[in-house]
Amino acid sequence: MTGISRYIAILLCIQSITAQTVNTGVLTIEPNTVLSTFFAFDNKASGDVLHNGNFYVYSDFKNDGLFTYSDLSDGKTFFIGNSNQVIEGASISEFQNIEFNNVSSKFPFSLKTTVVVNKLSSFRNGIVDGSHDAGIMIFKENASHSQTSNLSFVDGRVEKIGTAKFEFPIGDDVYYRPSFNDANKVNDTYTTEYFFETIGNIHPYTSKEASIVTIDEAEYWNLTQEQGTDKAVLSLTLDKNTTPAIFFQESNDTELAIVRWDAPTSKWINEKGAATDVLTGADYTKLITTQVSGYSVFTIALVKKENPEPPSDEIVIYNAVSPNGDGINDTFHIKGIDNFPNNKVEIYNRWGVKVYDAKSYNESDIMFRGYSEGRDTVKKNEGLPDGTYFYILEYESAGKTKRRSGYLYISKENK
């Protein structure tokens, strides 16, 4: 027990064939200290656990008291087991870092409580199943995750607080199907869950806007805005294991879009979007991005193509940027935008993180030159890497606000 506070009050209870590690007092796990429990851990309502070291849990975990950490610590809890593990309790459990590593079954973790992550959640092995209970995993402002794949993710609700770059580590069955959305303010909070099932019996697919041709009936995402008022930029993933084949087939008449169930009108609406392939090695194969106008149930659809360009006397968008100083395509050029000074341009990377925004965009000085001018999550005045980005343009023309969106491509070399 060296390095653990003298205020420890652990009681090892053995009742017939059931063994438990029970805490009823104050337990402090100091930095650089290891504490392991091979029995089910039970922190009673009277128990206070201050976890700043390394805590290995090889069985069930239950917290009815206080389970937290010191702000400057780097404590980590490891859930490792040879059989299924239940994570439950009447109180919220707060972790600096957490790791899931259990290969006893495909769904070895049953999440029945609220788990808060402040720094990093590592998904090494085992799906965290919170879909049948009230379980939820909350990622705070600077929290992130690693190693997510078809082998390990959250099958249930995930909440994200704040503006830091974030990929929702969600899926269903044995498929990792993340979504991405961009928040604008520190306290903005979103909750997302993915379902590999139809929702047509609740929200009929026949009730839809005229521009929608075919809706993905095999899957959907439920996105809610718990706090905040701004519109989010949402990215959904397509996977050939779950998404019907028709949504990977090219057509001259249709294009991919995100659609949302709109409760006031009781129909699916076209939120539009732009699609791109993802990097090799991901467990999903395509990404579609748009700025949504509300929050509810989302899925993917094929919609009728719109006229790709406005009338020639308005604007023309050149979506290739090669910021290498040779005077050719060095900026994101919107020809004719000078005629519409009441405008706004926003640019996001493929994960929904804002890298640029400007009002009164023009053809001379207020222009995107391939450098980040977004919030603190992306370094300012640093050249952005080559790749695909998503733009949103809004401008006022003849008293009406018009909106254009799509992808632009950054490459340091002209092609």
UniProtKB/TrEMBL annotation:
Pfam family, one: CHU_C
NCBIfam families tied to this protein: Bac_Flav_CTERM
Protein name (record): Gliding motility-associated C-terminal domain-containing protein
Organism of derivation: Flavobacterium quisquiliarum
Organism phylogeny: Bacteria, Pseudomonadati, Bacteroidota, Flavobacteriia, Flavobacteriales
